[in-house]
Amino acid sequence: MAKHTLLDEPPSPEEQFKDAMGKAGRFLARRPHSRAELGVKLRSFEPETVESALVRLEELGLIDDAAFAAQWVKERSSTKGARALEAELAQKGVAPEVISEALGEAGDETKRADELASRYLRRVVNKPPAKQAASIQGMLLRRGFGLDVAIQAARRVLPPEGWD
Question: Per the structure, how many domains does the chain have?
Answer without folding.
Answer: 3
